[in-house]
Each structure stands twice: as C-alpha cells, then as structure tokens.
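quick q for whoever's on today - can somebody do inverse folding on this one?? i tried earlier but teh output was garbage lol. tokens:
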C-alpha cells in the first residue's frame, strides 16, 4: 500500500468543531487533510498553561501547540477598528522572534490557515531542506474587503479616523497581494471571493473551499405558547455580528413589535458580547446569552432565524447552520453573498429595516412558507455544504496542487 504524502498544517487559531465559525473551518480542513495525508499539525492556543492535545490530535502523525497571542486591539470610533487591530501578529515565548518549532522533514504540502500561519511558514522557509513544499494558504475572509465595508457603512467621524481606516484597508490589501505572489495555492470560501482575488492577480491559483456544516434532524413544529422567537446566532465579539445585533434590536425589532406586540422575543446567542450588545438585555423582550454549551436547543425553540449582517467577508456559517436544522431564515443580501441560495426558494432576502421586519412577519404568519423554505434550504446544504460534499473536490484540488497549479 503506497504511503500517504507528508503534509504540514499550521493554524493561527485553535481548531475546534464546537468553536466559532473560523475555528470550525480550521477543524474541518484539518480533518479532511488527516484523511488524505500523513499530517503534522502546529496549532495556535492562547491558553496559559497550554492545554493537553485535543482528542482529534490522535488522527495526526504529530501535534504541537503554538503559544500565541493576538496583536493588541484598539477599539476606536468605527466598528472596523477592532478588526484592523487583530492583524494576527504572533508572539511566542518572551515576545522576541520565536525559536523554530520542530518541523516535519520534507513535507510535500504546507497548508496554512490564515495569514499569520503563512507568515510563520515563510519566516522559517529555509527549515525545509530539500524540495520546498507546495505552499497553500486558506483565507476564511478577505480582510481588506471587510475593512472597506466597515468604513463605508460606518465612516469614522474624524479626519484622522478616516485616514486610519483607509490605511488599514491599504495595508491589508498590500499584504494580501504579497500572499498571492508567494503562495502556490490560495483557497477561499466562495466564488465571489475567488473572483475578487483573480481580478487583482489573474494568474493566481485560487480554489473554492466552502464552509461546511452537518445536516441536523428537522426541527419539529414548536408548540405555540404565545411567544414569537426570533433568533440570531454568532460570535458577538466579531464586529459585523455586533453591528448586526444592534441594527436588529434598534431598527427591526420595534417594527416587528408594532405588528405582533410585546410577545416578540429577540434572542442574541453568541460568545463574548461587548458592552453595547450586553446593554440590549436591559430592554424588554431581548435575551443576550453570551457563550452557551450548545446552540441546538436555541434552534429548536426558534420560529425564525435571522442573519442581519451588513459588512464583513467570507460566508456566514450560521446561515448554513440554521438551514441545516431546516429552519426558515431571513438574511441581508450581504449575509447571503457567496452562498448558492435563492430568494423565495431557500430563504428570504431583505435590506432595509422595514423589509427585514416584513420578511420575518411573512414567515411567522405563513407556516407553510416557513416549512417550504426551511426544507429547501436544508436540501441545498445537504447537497453542497457538508464535509462529504466538499471532501471529493478538496482531494482533487489537493492532488492537483501538489502536482501543479489548481485548474
């Protein structure tokens, strides 16, 4: 039996099947690679002391934690300030240049999850004696696009702030262009992100690796108890999700209440809500949970799931997660960007507060429509956005990448 090709996987986040969307994406890539290669893993952890190896490490030929801390974050007057601060610089040990970790000998592939992992591998490129590995970088989002969206939606109030925003976009775009010039293959979440990068560097080798979820049993019709539950799930420390939660509570919820009264309950489920989101729970009919052990119970209670995200990049994993439960979903056009979903068939699209509230009301008042959209969306997820659906093209891209450019 031929031996598997040796591969190095470096992640600047902690891969976690139950973590935030970015952690789930890192874990899904890792597990697919573990089935196809002799996989050696370097994964970041912010915990001190470092935790024991996670259970999934048994699937790997070797595993090491990298003690990592993020760049200092300086929240400012615009929502993109925190995202701009999280540029992913790494610091290990005493904060100086880290000593080289134990590298596997002569890997054929170096798969880097996010830009900091790519920077680490490039910094120690000479450690790979013999033939250099195929260098693959996965971008779960395009940060210059996310920052530009934040600055457009929420322009900084001062000239200095506007200049800082433009500089953040420019610096990230420059870093992305440098990556396109050095990585053999870059993978992104959607064809839209692929087209964005190809417009900047047409000869780049760019693969599409969609976010994936596991299809869940269909949520049974909830027994009516007089309460109308609207659910938004997402990491509330992420700027686009925080903006979405505030817009939903301040602009959309009052319109829904004008139609359904005080029985509308808005549930904001996600870890690390900032002060602005936490303050919403002082308002009647709004629940802010913070971190929860599992999101499935919240989906089982929901009448409609919403994704009112208005800026960012990549694709919204929580939209797929809600559809995987067979639930009806209302999303902004931006939240649906890059997903192969159709308005009126798999979900409802809405941009303005009035249209968003009206779309939610349609689903709350028309049970047949809600079930039809939920079932259709679940079928799309089952066919295109599960690990099994992505594993085969991923294997083909991987083989082609190690042999030559991705077609």
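ok took a stab at it. sequence:
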């Amino acid at each position: 039996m031929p031996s598997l090709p040796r591969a190095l996987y470096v992640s600047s986040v902690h891969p976690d099947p139950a973590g935030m969307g970015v952690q789930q994406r890192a874990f899904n890539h890792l597990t697919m690679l573990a089935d196809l290669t002799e996989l050696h893993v370097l994964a970041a952890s912010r915990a001190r002391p470092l935790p024991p190896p996670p259970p999934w490490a048994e699937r790997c030929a070797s595993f090491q934690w990298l003690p990592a801390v993020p760049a200092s974050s300086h929240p400012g007057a615009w929502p993109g300030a925190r995202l701009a601060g999280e540029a992913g610089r790494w610091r290990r040990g005493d904060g100086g240049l880290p000593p080289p970790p134990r590298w596997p000998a002569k890997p054929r592939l170096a798969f880097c999850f996010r830009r900091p992992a790519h920077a680490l591998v490039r910094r120690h490129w000479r450690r790979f004696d013999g033939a250099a590995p195929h260098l693959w970088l996965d971008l779960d989002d395009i940060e210059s696009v996310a920052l530009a969206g934040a600055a457009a939606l929420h322009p900084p109030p001062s000239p200095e702030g506007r200049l800082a925003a433009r500089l953040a976009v420019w610096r990230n775009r420059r870093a992305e262009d440098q990556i396109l010039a050095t990585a053999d293959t870059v993978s992104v979440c959607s064809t839209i992100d692929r087209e964005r990068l190809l417009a900047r560097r047409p000869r780049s080798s760019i693969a599409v690796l969609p976010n994936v979820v596991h299809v869940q049993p269909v949520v049974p019709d909830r027994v009516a108890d007089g309460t109308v539950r609207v659910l938004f799930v997402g990491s509330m420390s992420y700027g686009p999700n925080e903006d979405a939660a505030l817009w939903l509570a301040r602009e959309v919820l009052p319109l829904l209440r004008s139609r359904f009264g005080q029985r509308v309950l808005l549930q904001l489920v996600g870890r690390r809500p900032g002060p602005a989101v936490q303050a919403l729970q002082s308002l009647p009919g709004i629940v802010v949970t913070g971190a929860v052990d599992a999101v499935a119970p919240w989906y089982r209670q929901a009448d409609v799931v919403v994704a009112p995200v208005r800026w960012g990049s990549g694709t919204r994993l929580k939209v797929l997660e809600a559809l995987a439960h067979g639930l009806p979903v209302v999303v902004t056009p931006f939240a649906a960007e890059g997903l192969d979903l159709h308005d009126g068939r798999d979900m409802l699209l809405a941009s303005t507060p009035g249209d968003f509230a009206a779309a939610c009301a349609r689903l709350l008042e028309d049970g047949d429509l809600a079930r039809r959209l939920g079932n259709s969306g679940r079928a799309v997820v089952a066919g295109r956005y599960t690990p099994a659906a992505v594993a085969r093209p991923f294997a083909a891209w991987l083989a082609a990448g190690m042999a030559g450019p991705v077609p």
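fwiw The longest helix spans residues 159-182. also The chain has two domains: 6-212+387-403, 228-384. so keep that in mind when u check it
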